Amino acid sequence: MQNRTKQYLIIIVFSLMSIFVYKHGVNIDRGTLSISANVSNYSYKVGRNQFECATNRCSQILKPNNYVLIVSKDGFLDYQTEVEVSQQHENEIEINLETIPSTKEIDASEFKLETFVKDNFIVHQDLSSERKILALDPQRTLSSFSYNQKDKNALVVYDKSDVYFYDLKANESYKLQLPINFQPNQVRSFTNNSLLITNSDDQVFQGFVKEGRLELNSIKVINSIDHFLPTKNGYLAVLPSGLDQSQFNLADILTDQVEYDEGPLTNQDIKSKYEKVDKALFYYSLQSKRLKRVLDLSLESTKEVGLLTGVTDKNSTPILKLRKGFYKIEL
User: Can you give the pLDDT at residue 39?
Assistant: First the structure.
């Protein structure tokens, strides 16, 4: 009887050891991916596998590999990134999902321009006070200006002929050397330390300041300076509504060709065709690297729409000007 009991004990011990070895042996060549988000009840896809997370933090044990992680939730922009899972290591990813931008019609009296000209100064509306940024030349006619709050610099166009760059942090300024026969009209800060500038024919160029010279790229898909606006975490742009949002990248805005439903447009015909296609307001998120349609626009002319930065409730707010109306863009 005792021998039989010992046999049972041996069988039980070996069974438990087998279960332990199997359980941990299966995962010994695995790694862990842990996701922490600013929301709960989201779904996420790792490679081809789809998962649901009821809380704000979830983990998965995966084979070591490089994966594409996509996190989704209704009402929020998809988040996509590449992650690496290493054997017997935990990779912790923190994600901040952004809400899909929305628009709300407001009256012109409900906001003030964030930057404007007053008493021959460029003035920046800072919370409840106005702050003088730059004194303008009273002997010259101001054509256009742009103030970059983040980098503390300004661009000023005088008499549709001269462009001046002001480094307000270093208290330095200089006149830019322009390409031959280039007559500047409007100017606005753009991306990657560049600017948007138009000539006398209202053609839009991307400009780079290098050693005091303004170097220009060819005409871009953005057909008006007022159709592009940098925001805190991305960019707003009025673009052709037929753009493929799943594949579109901000870099495509800077290229000479962009694929439309009609086919590729080149430098020669991009301006005329861009005027004719339907428009929509898009938001490009620097975090998710994705373009999202915010609002379809029914326009008779591209001059009916523009983007500007206003101050509402003491906060900096993107504003869409659509014909005679104004819309607050909530990001």
Answer: 93
Give me the amino acid identity at 8: Y
**Is 70 strand, coil or helix?**
strand
As a whole number, mean pLDDT of residues 318-323 equals 91
Q: What is the pLDDT of residues 301-310, one digit of tens each?
A: 778 899 999 8
Lowest pLDDT segment from 7-16, 51-60, 148-157, 239-248:
7-16
Under a CB-based contact definition with an 8 Å cutoff, are residues 108 and 56 in contact?
Answer: no
Q: Which residues sit opposite 82 in a β-bridge? A: 68
Domain ranges of the chain: 2-95, 102-330
pLDDT, position 5: 64
Q: How far apart (Å, rounded) are the C-alpha atoms in residues 306 and 238? A: 8
Judge whether 205 and 190 are in contact, CB under 8 Å.
no
Q: What is the pLDDT of residue 276?
A: 52
Q: Are 43 and 59 in contact (CB under 8 A)?
A: no
CB 242 within 8 A of CB 255: no
| Fold classified for 2-95 | Immunoglobulin-like (2.60.40)
Contact in structure between 195 and 146 (CB atoms under 8 Å): yes
- DSSP element (H, E) containing 11: helix 2-27
User: Token pair 């800060």 is at which residue?
Assistant: 189
Tell me if residue 203 falls in helix, strand or coil. Answer: coil
The tokens describing 226, both together, are 């007022």
CA separation (Å) from 153 to 120, 122, 229?
18, 12, 16
Q: Is the four-CA dihedral 76, 80, 81, 83 of positive or negative sign? A: positive
Averaged pLDDT, 187-195:
78
